[in-house]
Structures are given as structure tokens and as C-alpha cells.
Design a protein that fits this description.
Length: 401
């Protein structure tokens, strides 16, 4: 399909005007600037920029208390946090993960010579299916990494049962799930450990950043050493390690944003329900539902597009929205198994991933967060309604180009 010049074409059909400025998924949330600037000045005055400084220590304590977990170790980003976690748990051979995740989950394994074994997700959601995990286990399997996609909790109970039965490790990529809860307990308390991303695009950001949280004292000590080259005091290296340290500037941003996190989540929630109220009237735009036992951070507004009803497929809709300056995203298209090096290494992986293949073609993530107003959402709704209503003319126009 060719990209149509949709601004021009939709306008010809009498569509509402396109947005003047681009509306993005993932605009950063920024807390109180005065507090941030004070902290930045303090860093510069004290000339202590990194290496487990005062702000990193404060942030670790506050996050641990917010989550209700014993240990929080701040790391320079979520990907390095995954890599260090994988090492700290001694994962080797094969590790089972979903393919429907950001590529970092798979790379963190492959980068260390461990084979990611892609498992399908369950119907009606986007998380790894515990029933299928069992079929992926071989004598080489050392662990499972569940991913709480869109902040929706994995099926902790069943994954724990599988991991215990086969005596393998269980950890979670909780990159999307900061501030989310399951059964009134904050995500971050399950498996051997859980990993957050504090990237700029996340509900809670520290510019770049991440954290590993765990209730296991021994593991926490090991991770602390590993993120600092394995140093235990001056001149004494006790493990192979890396440099996973968070800088003071990131921690200053983290502390500032933590003070506003409840507000960010409330603002997300208002937008989430505004989308829901409007879009439930649009055929073929099914909003991904929340788990009944879940408290969400409402950071992602995701739809499953049913082409039979919209008349246009997801990619056609994304092209049209982009031309209208609505920069919706296709996370996690085309699925890790269809990206390098995995598509070359495992060319047949898709045969075992029917639900992943299906969802990868249907998901659409809409712009949201405090930088998107309710009026913006009203306009997005009008444009989408228009597109669905005029699907036949638009399709004809596309065919003739
Ligand atoms: N596991 C999972 C499940 C993850 O989703 C991620 C990261 C990780 C692990 C790894 O954690 P980190 O190592 O990243 O801490 C973005 C993020 O870069 C990535 O962190 C995130 N997942 C992924 C889901 O989304 P892209 O390729 O979409 O980034 P990009 O540059 O296209 O930005 C997205 C949108 O955000 C843009 O349309 C504009 C907006 N934006 C972005 C930045 C960086 C801004 O407005 N300002 C900004 O500063 O990956």
C-alpha cells in the first residue's frame, strides 16, 4: 500500500482539520521544576556527580518504601538492569520470554550468549501464557522472564508454580509497571526480582534510568556489587561486574518526579477513561481492558483494531493518523522473533506464536499523558470516527493511487 497524502485527502472528504503540532506517545512527565533545579544546583555545589551519591541513596529508599519491597537498586537504564539481573540469577542456556515485548528483553539475554525462547501470549491479553511456558521447558532452561506489558500484571501465581515445579528462576521485566498494583500489592514484589525502566517515555522517568527490586538480601548485595564493577570497598573486586550506576542528575529527576507520581497517574487515568468513553462507540476499536485485580498507572492507551469492522487495517490507520499529526505507535510490531538476530537464528519461531503474530498486526498505542489534553482526545476521536465512516471512499482513493 502506498502512503496517501492523507491531510489533503481527508480534507477533501470534509474531515476535521489535522493537528498543527505532532501528538506523541511517550512525552516525558516532568515534576516540579523548582525542586529539580534546587537539586541540580546542589549536585553542582557539592561536586558529587555519581557513584552511589546522596540522591541515588535517597531515591532507592523512597522507591523501596513506595513499592513495599526490601531492596531497590537504582541502575543507569532498564536494559542494563535486565542484563545485571540475568547475571545475578546465574541464568544460562535457555530462558523463556514472550516475543511480544520491547526488543531489550530478548537482547539482554542474547547479548550474554543465552538463548531467548519465545513463548506465546494468552488470548484476551498481551502477557506470556503460563500454560504454554511448560511446553517451552527443556533441560537447558534456567529461567522465565515475564513481562507486564502495558503495566498489566503477569499471572504471578501460575508462573511461580511452573518455575517452582521445574526448579528454574523467575524474574519480571516490569518496565511498564511502575506504580501498578496487583491484589493491592505494588508490582515489584514477585519472583526473585523485578526490573523497572525509568526511561524518559515512561510514567516515571529519571531521564534515563531503571531499578532492580527484590526481597532477597543475598541477591540484593550481589547486584549492588555487580553494578559497580564488582567492587567491595576500595581496591577489592569480588565479582565480575559492569558499570550500571545511576548518576546523581538522574536521581534528582527521579526524586522530583516521584513527588508528582500520583498526579501523573491521576492525569493518565482521566485521559484513559475519556478515550474509553468516546472510543467504545467506534466499531473495530477495542480498547485493551484492565485486569479486575489490577490497579494501573494508565500509562498506555492501547487498542486492538479489527479490520473487519474498521474496513482499514491497523497499518493503514496508523499511516492516516500520522498524516494527521497523531503519532500513534505499533508497539511491539513485528515481534522480537521477526527482528534480527532472532529472525535469522529462529526462522520458524512464528509458527508457535499465533497469538503474538495476531496481536502484532492489530495493536495501536494512542498518544496520552499530561501533555495531551481532553480536547486533543476529542479531536482524535472525531478524526478516527471520520476515517471509519468514510472507509470505503478512503480505500478507493488508496487503490487508485
Ligand atoms: N523492557 C520493556 C518491556 C521496555 O518497554 C523497555 C523500554 C525496556 C525493557 C528497556 O528499558 P530502557 O533501557 O529503555 O530503560 C521507547 C523507549 O525508548 C523505550 O525505553 C521503551 N521501552 C519503548 C517501549 O519505547 P521508542 O523506540 O518508541 O522510542 P522513541 O525515541 O521513538 O520515543 C517514543 C516517543 O516518545 C516519541 O514519539 C517521542 C517521545 N519522546 C521520546 C523521548 C526520548 C519525547 O517526547 N521526548 C523524549 O525525550 O522506544
Amino acid at each position: 500500500m502506498k502512503n496517501i497524502n492523507t491531510i489533503h485527502d481527508l480534507a477533501m472528504f470534509g474531515a476535521p482539520p489535522a493537528f498543527q503540532n505532532k501528538l506523541h506517545v511517550g512525552r516525558p512527565n516532568i515534576g516540579n521544576r523548582k525542586n529539580l533545579n534546587e537539586r541540580l544546583n546542589n549536585i553542582l555545589d557539592k561536586k558529587w556527580l555519581t557513584n552511589q551519591g546522596e540522591y541515588v541513596q535517597q531515591l532507592e529508599k523512597r522507591i523501596a518504601s513506595y513499592i513495599g519491597v526490601k531492596h531497590c537498586i537504582c541502575i543507569c537504564n532498564g536494559t542494563i538492569a535486565l542484563e545485571i539481573s540475568i547475571r545475578a540469577l546465574n541464568l544460562t542456556g535457555e530462558v523463556i520470554i514472550p516475543s511480544f515485548t520491547f526488543i531489550a528483553t530478548a537482547h539482554a539475554l542474547q547479548w550474554q550468549g543465552i538463548k531467548p525462547v519465545f513463548c506465546d501470549i494468552h488470548k484476551g491479553g498481551c502477557n506470556i501464557d503460563p500454560a504454554l511456558v511448560e511446553f517451552c521447558i527443556t533441560p537447558e532452561t534456567s529461567g522465565i522472564i515475564g513481562v507486564h506489558v502495558w503495566g498489566a500484571p503477569c499471572d504471578y501465581e501460575r508462573l511461580t508454580a511452573v518455575a517452582n515445579k521445574h526448579q528454574i528462576k523467575l524474574m519480571f521485566d516490569a518496565a511498564h509497571a511502575f506504580g501498578c498494583s496487583y491484589h493491592n500489592r505494588k508490582i515489584g514484589n514477585h519472583g526473585h526480582l523485578e526490573v523497572f525502566s525509568f526511561h524518559a517515555t515512561k510514567v516515571f522517568n529519571s531521564f534515563e534510568g531503571g531499578a532492580i527490586v527484590t526481597n532477597d538480601d543475598t541477591l540484593a548485595n550481589k547486584i549492588r556489587l555487580m553494578k559497580n564493577f564488582g567492587f567491595s570497598g576500595h581496591d577489592n573486586v569480588v565479582y565480575i561486574g559492569s558499570n550500571g550506576k545511576m548518576s546523581e542528575i538522574s536521581a534528582a529527576m527521579g526524586l522530583t518526579n516521584l513527588e508528582s507520581l500520583d498526579t501523573f497517574i491521576q492525569q493518565n487515568q482521566i485521559r484513559y477513561y475519556h478515550y474509553k468513553k468516546l472510543f467504545e462507540h467506534i466499531p473495530g476499536f477495542k480498547m485493551m481492558s484492565l485486569h479486575e485485580k489490577q490497579k494501573s498507572n494508565f500509562h498506555y492507551v492501547t487498542f486492538e483494531i479489527d479490520e473487519k469492522e474498521t474496513g482499514l487495517n491497523r497499518d493503514q490507520i496508523v499511516n492516516i493518523l500520522h498524516a494527521e499529526n497523531i503519532i500513534a505507535r505499533r508497539y511491539f510490531y513485528p515481534g522480537c522473533h521477526r527482528m534480527e538476530p532472532y529472525r535469522t537464528l529462529y526462522p520458524n519461531a512464528g509458527r508457535l506464536l499465533p497469538q503474538t503474530e495476531h496481536i502484532c498486526k492489530q495493536v495501536l498505542v494512542m498518544p496520552t499523558g499530561p501533555s495531551i489534553s481532553k480536547n486533543d482526545i476529542d479531536m482524535i476521536y472525531k478524526i478516527v470516527t471520520f476515517v471509519v465512516k468514510h472507509q470505503h471512499e478512503i480505500k478507493l482513493k488508496m487503490k487508485n493511487q
